[in-house]
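User: Second chain of the day. Same drill as before.
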Amino acid sequence: MNEIASGLFHWTARHPNIGADVSSYYLLPERVLIDPMVPEEGLDWFAEQGAPEHVLLSNRHHYRDSGRFAERFGCAVHASRPGMHEFADDQPVEPFDWGEELPGGVTAHESGAICPDDGVFHIPSHSALSVADGVINYGGLGFVPEEHLGDDPDAIKRTIRESYAPLAERLEFDNLLIAHGDPIVGGGREALREFAAG
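Assistant: Same format as last time:
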């Protein structure tokens, strides 16, 4: 568990379905998890530091280990309304709408270029923006592999850039929290602007 800013924790864990490490985040003062996997330290770390109360999913594919957190701590799990069809009866998830303020003072915004439920979370208390699958960071901001971008990858890439450009302009943030890859601590807004500009 790495505290990348005051009260903001990041960690990676291997996702069994994709065979790669993915990133998760915990807003400790707000008791809010984003796209959680169970870290190497286990669930006891959260019991010792402060138990989570809510889980926010940046898209429907990021349920990950949310069920384990819900079972242990009674967390409510929240996902955007367009992705609600994905969840099974044993995965109770509460829908939210774009523009809605969520627990922890987080606001959900649509990016939606890859899928209709793909979004970003604006987190003013940590000067952060959390992104789902539209952008990854492995040594620099980029796109997911083209096999995940449908029949016309170039068109999807243009749409991704077009969706992030206005968000980077109108939302104030310094830290960029990436679901696939490393977060950018400081300078995240400028990095997203440059990515959106191509």
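The chain has a mean pLDDT of 94.

User: Great, on to the next one.
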